[in-house]
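S1.2 Input.
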Amino acid sequence: MDLKYSKATDSAHTVKLTSSLIYAAWKSGAAPIGQAAPLEVVTAFVGQGASIKITGKSDAGKSLGSASGKIFNNVYVGELTIPDSVKIGDTVYFEVDLSANGVKGESNHIPAVPPVEVTNMKWSASEARRGDILTLSATVKGVPDKTEVTVRILEYDADGGHDITAELPAIVDKNKLEVKWEYTYFEDVDDIATQEEMQKYGKAYNPPEYFFVVEVYGQKHGLKQESKLLLFKDYVDIVLTNQRNQPIPDQDYVLYLPDGSQRKGKLDKEGRAVEKNVPPGDYRVEFPNL
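S1.3 Output.
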């Protein structure tokens, strides 16, 4: 599409912009039978909210059904489910119709493949501390050996607004997937709301938790937290000194943790103590004998 503009800029001109299809494409290289295949359409100058119709077909003459929607910011993202009537080895494509704009087009053709099944999604541990090396594993059926997939680790949000923490490439070998990840928490734990703060809103303390999904052929498996939730555990280093920065040893202490619980202990002869495996967040320490 030629967008060259060569007229003078010191006066007004009327320019007619022609609607066009930039591309229409599947978002993966294969379409698993019986599952949804994501697609994307990118246009130019069709107008915000322009109506679009997608019609799926196979080269063997099978129908994949249709979908319709609106173009926003010159982009439409959708999906078509590949019906069981499509045979392995057939190829599928979709047609684009923006009748009001006089734009039509056709996508790329991709092979229909067996349905993908991802099961046994597991963390190697139920809790993680900074620097821990965790193994993420799953069973993946329906793909050839050496197929590359993507593992995404998300921080769980009860309202569904899960944030992506990491993306890891992985290879499926003999129906098995295994990838390692080092846990690191980059945020300030003081920003995690305590039980006392959450109670004001009728909610409970919620420490960082994580699950992972496996993306195969554009489809995300594990969005219902099938991997189970990985819980972040922290530690507290307690040090007590006087005004001269000299240690005050053997003092009893009470540690008030962000989930509302307490831990009691005694400092060593160096005026120190370490409490491990504590819930992360803001805390305070009291020394009852001082």
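S1.4 Remarks. The CA atoms of residues 235 and 276 lie 4 Å apart.
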